[in-house]
Amino acid sequence: MIMKKKLLHLHLMTFLMATTFSFSFVSCGGDDDDDNSSASVNDTSGRPMENPGMFGLNGKHLVQVYLQTYTYYENGALLTIKDDNYGYTYTFSEDQKIMEATHSYHSYKNYKNAIAYNRLGYIASMITISELEDVDVEPTDAAYTYDRDGHLTNFGSYDLKWVNGNLVEISDKKYASDHGYTTYTLYTLEYSEKYPNKYHQFVKPMLGFTKRLNEYLAYIGFFGKGSEYFPIRVNLESVYLNDRGQANNKTKTVNYKYEYNDDGTVSACIGDDGNSSCSYYYYK
User: Which of 12, 86, 256, 271 is at 20 to 30 A from 231, Cα to Cα?
Assistant: First the structure.
C-alpha cells in the first residue's frame, strides 16, 4: 500500500512538471508573437535603418529624384537632401536623429526636427524642436504607424490600406469646424504584374498621403516598404463641403508606366497627365 502511494505521488509530480514546462513553452511562444505584432513595431525605441536609399544588386544609393538630390555619410547614413524646387536643404546628423532645414533665401523658414525610429528602423515621429513663426512647412509632430510587414498604415489624417502587399487606398478626411468646412480625399491604386517592384521602392503615384520632406524620405525607404508592384493607375476623388452643405466634387485618373535599370531598380515613372506626374531616378 505504501509502495502504491509512492508510485501515485511520483506520477502526480511528473504530471505537474510536464504541465508546468508545457505552459512555460506556450507562454514563451506568445511573447515571440507579441514581438512581431504591429503594436510592438510602433514604438519609438528603435534605431534608424542602415544604408537608406540603397537599392539593387550592386548596392547603389539613390542620389536624385526629379529636382531632389541626396548625399550620404561614408558609413551609408543620410547626410543631406537638397530640394532645388522649394529652396530647402535638409541636413541630418550622423545618428539620423536630428534634421536641420535651411532655406536658401528666407532664414525665418529654417527649423529643426528631432526624429525617432521604430523597431524596423522606419520613422516613427518627427517633432519640431525649434519653433519659429511663419515656417512654411507641413506639420511634423504626427506619428507614423506601420503594420507588422513594414507598410505605413497611418500618418496624421491619412489612412493607408494594403492588400496582398500592395497599397490600394489612401484616404484623408479633414475637419475645420472653426472655418465651417470638411474635405475628403480618396486615392485608389490599381496594379499590373507587368511592373514588379523588386526592391519595394516608393514612387510618386504611391505618395498621395504626403508631400515635400516626407515624400523625399519615402523614396529612400524611411517610411517602410513600398508595394509588390508599381501602380499603373491612380484614381483621385476629392470632396469639399462648405458650411452650407454645398459640395464641390473633383475626380481625376492618371495612368502610369515604368522603366527599369538592369538590376531591377526603377529608373522612370511616367504619367499621362504631363511633366508633373513624371519622375526619374538616378543611382550612384
Answer: 86
Q: What residue type is assigned to position 128 of the chain?
A: T
Residue whose C-alpha cell reads 524646387 in the numeric block: 85
Answer for the pair 166, 195: CB distance below 8 angstroms, yes or no: no
Q: Hey, CA dihedral for 164, 167, 169, 174, is it positive or negative? A: positive
Q: Own/partner pairs for 153-161, CB < 8 Å, 24+ apart?
A: 153/38, 155/209, 155/210, 155/214, 155/223, 158/209, 158/210, 160/209
CA distance readout (Å), 265 to 14, 32, 77, 196, 228: 59, 34, 20, 10, 13
pLDDT tens, residue by residue, 89-136: 999 999 999 999 999 999 888 999 999 999 999 999 998 886 544 444
In this predicted model, what pLDDT tens digit does every residue of 12-40 receive, in sequence order? 344 334 444 333 333 344 444 445 566 67
